[in-house]
Amino acid sequence: MEERELESEPEKQEEEPLSMDLSGLNEDALSMMGISKREVADALRTWTQEHGFSSATGAQFLEPMLVRFSEEKYSMDCQLIFADGGNGIQPEDAQTKLTMDYFKEKKLLQIHK
């Protein structure tokens, strides 16, 4: 399980590209939760590299994005996206689903299968 403390970064003049593609990720929902798209992308990149999914290029979130709210955390599901190697065939792990939990008080994002 990946744990990562979220830090507020000062705004940069030029916006760097995200480290992962986040299809379907609703920025309004993230804003309401107090999480940035960059924080989600960076946490996802770290998790995929540490758990043997280094060929993952991003994640697909359900549209409309489903967020589960509880007293201590917000949870949302996504499915990893992999590069197809140019042949149009996705690897077997293309069905890998993840859950992201954001703990409000700790400002902590956890990713798990």
UniProtKB/TrEMBL annotation:
Region described as Disordered: spans on this chain: 1-24
Name this polypeptide is given: Uncharacterized protein
Organism: Mediterraneibacter gnavus (Ruminococcus gnavus)
Compositionally biased spans, kind Basic and acidic residues: 1-11
Domain of life: Bacteria
